[in-house]
Structure to design on (369 residues):
C-alpha cells in the first residue's frame, strides 16, 4: 500500500465543500479584503483557486466575531501537551444581526458582480447545474444563531433570503444552547445542551428545510438534537475524537448515531483537530488527514463521509495549502485504495444525498415529542 506525502498525479474529481469562512476576507465585506474573482496569495479560497482545485460549491459560513476582540492568546491556557481556550462570551443580538446582514449582503453582492460565475443556490439541482456550467455554488450557512430571536421570526426571514444551513451555536453559549469549547485533551461533554428555545429552533429548521449543523455543539446538545430532529444528523466540519481527543471532535458513540440517522460528517482540515498531538503545525502530512477519512469510512460508511475544509477559518496542512491543493488530498486518498466511485461519493455525491434529504421542507414529517 502506498503512503504518499505529496501526490503529483492531477485529479479530475469535482468537490463540494462542507464549510469555509471566506466571506470574512472578501472586499465586499472587508474594505481592504481580497477580490474573490481574482487569484490571491493570501487566504485559502477564491474563484480561480476553487476552479484549480475542482471545487464547484460549498457551504459559505456567516459567523459573528466578538464585538470587542481580546488580545491574542489572552484566553489561552497551554502546556506542552494540552490547551484550553476560555469559552467566548455571549453576543449582543442586535450586533449579531447587523453582522449577519452585512455578510449576507456581501455574498449577494459578490454573486451579482460575478456575472453568473458565482451563484447562491438553495436546492441540489441548482448546485449541480453550477457544476455542469463551471460556476461556483454558494450554500448559505450561519455558524451560531445569535442573530435569531426566540420567536424565530429572523429564521423565517433568513430562509426567504436563501439560508439553508444553520449551526445553532458556535463555541459559546446563546439562547439556544451551549457550544463546545476549544480544548485538548477533552471530552465534548462539557456542559448543558439545548435550551427549550433550542428545541423549537430544531423543529423550525426541520419544518423549513434547513440543515442543522452539529459541529460546534457540545455532546449534550448533540444528543438533544438527535432526540428531536426528523432529519439526518450532520456535522459539516469535524474530525474523529479517537484519533485526536479535541473537544471539537466526534466520539465513536456520536459517529454511530450519525450512521444510524443516515447523516454524514464533513472532515475538517484544521491541523489541531487532525493531529494526535493537536499541535497547530501546518507541516502536517496528508497521511494524518487520510487516517481520519479511513476511520470515518470504517465507522459510518462510505456514503456518509465528505469534506468540510474550514478554509479561511483554520490552519490547514501545507500539503493542501489552499483550495487549489485539493487534488493532492484526493490522490492521497486514492493511493490508500479508494476508487473513483468512492472518491466521487466523498467529494460531492454524499453531500448531494444528505442535502436532498434535508432541504425539502419537512412539514409532513412526524414531529418528535
Amino acid at each position: 500500500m502506498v503512503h504518499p506525502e505529496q501526490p503529483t498525479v492531477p485529479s479530475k474529481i469535482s468537490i463540494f465543500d462542507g464549510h469555509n469562512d471566506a466571506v470574512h476576507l472578501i472586499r465586499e465585506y472587508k474594505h481592504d479584503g481580497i477580490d474573490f474573482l481574482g487569484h490571491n496569495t493570501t487566504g485559502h479560497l477564491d474563484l480561480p483557486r476553487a476552479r484549480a482545485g475542482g471545487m464547484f460549491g460549498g457551504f459559505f459560513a456567516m459567523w459573528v466575531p466578538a464585538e470587542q476582540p481580546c488580545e491574542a492568546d489572552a484566553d489561552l491556557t497551554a502546556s506542552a501537551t494540552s490547551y484550553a481556550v476560555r469559552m467566548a462570551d455571549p453576543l449582543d443580538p442586535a450586533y449579531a444581526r447587523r453582522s449577519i446582514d452585512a455578510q449576507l449582503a456581501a455574498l449577494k453582492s459578490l454573486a451579482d458582480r460575478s456575472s453568473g460565475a458565482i451563484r447562491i443556490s438553495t436546492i441540489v439541482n441548482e448546485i449541480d447545474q453550477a457544476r455542469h456550467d463551471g460556476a461556483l455554488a454558494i450554500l448559505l450557512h450561519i455558524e451560531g444563531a445569535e442573530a435569531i430571536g426566540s420567536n424565530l421570526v429572523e429564521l423565517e426571514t433568513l430562509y426567504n433570503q436563501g439560508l439553508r444551513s444553520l449551526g445553532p451555536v458556535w463555541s459559546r453559549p446563546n439562547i439556544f444552547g451551549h457550544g463546545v469549547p476549544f480544548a485538548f485533551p477533552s471530552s465534548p461533554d462539557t456542559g448543558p445542551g439545548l435550551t427549550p428555545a433550542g428545541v423549537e429552533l430544531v423543529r423550525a429548521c426541520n419544518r423549513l428545510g434547513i440543515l442543522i449543523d452539529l459541529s460546534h455543539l457540545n455532546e449534550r446538545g448533540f444528543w438533544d438534537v438527535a432526540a428531536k430532529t426528523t432529519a439526518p444528523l450532520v456535522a459539516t466540519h469535524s474530525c474523529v475524537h479517537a484519533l485526536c481527543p479535541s473537544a471539537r471532535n466526534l466520539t465513536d458513540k456520536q459517529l454511530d448515531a450519525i450512521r444510524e440517522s443516515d447523516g454524514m460528517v464533513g472532515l475538517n482540515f484544521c491541523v489541531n483537530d487532525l493531529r494526535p498531538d493537536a499541535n497547530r503545525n501546518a507541516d502536517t502530512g496528508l497521511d494524518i488527514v487520510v487516517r481520519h477519512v479511513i476511520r470515518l469510512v470504517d465507522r459510518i460508511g462510505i456514503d456518509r463521509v465528505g469534506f468540510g475544509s474550514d478554509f479561511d477559518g483554520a490552519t490547514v496542512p501545507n500539503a493542501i495549502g489552499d483550495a487549489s491543493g485539493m487534488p493532492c488530498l484526493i490522490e492521497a486518498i486514492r493511493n490508500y485504495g479508494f476508487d473513483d466511485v468512492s472518491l466521487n461519493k466523498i467529494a460531492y455525491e454524499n453531500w448531494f444525498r444528505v442535502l436532498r434529504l434535508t432541504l425539502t421542507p419537512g412539514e409532513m414529517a412526524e414531529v418528535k415529542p
Remarks:
- The longest helix spans residues 93-113.
